[in-house]
Amino acid sequence: MIDLKLIEQLTNAFGVSGCEGEVRNIVRKHITKNVDQIRVDALGNLIAYKKASGAKPGAKKTKVMLAAHMDEVGLMVTSIDKSGFLQFDKVGGVDNRVLLAKKVLVGKDKIPGVIGSKAIHLIARKGEHKKVSPHSDLSIDIGATSQEDAQKFVSPGDYVMFDTKFEDWGKTLKAKAFDDRIGCYMIIELLKERYPFDIYAAFTTQEEVGLRGGRVAAYKDEPDMAFILEGTGAGDMPQPKERDESLVPGLGLGPVITIMDRSVFCDQGLVKLLTDTAKTNRIPHQIKRPGIGGTDAGRIHLSKGGVPSVVLAIPSRYIHSPVCLSSKKDIENGLKLMRLALNKVK
Ligand SMILES: [Zn+2]
Question: Alpha-carbon Rg of the chain, whole angstroms?
Answer without folding.
Answer: 21
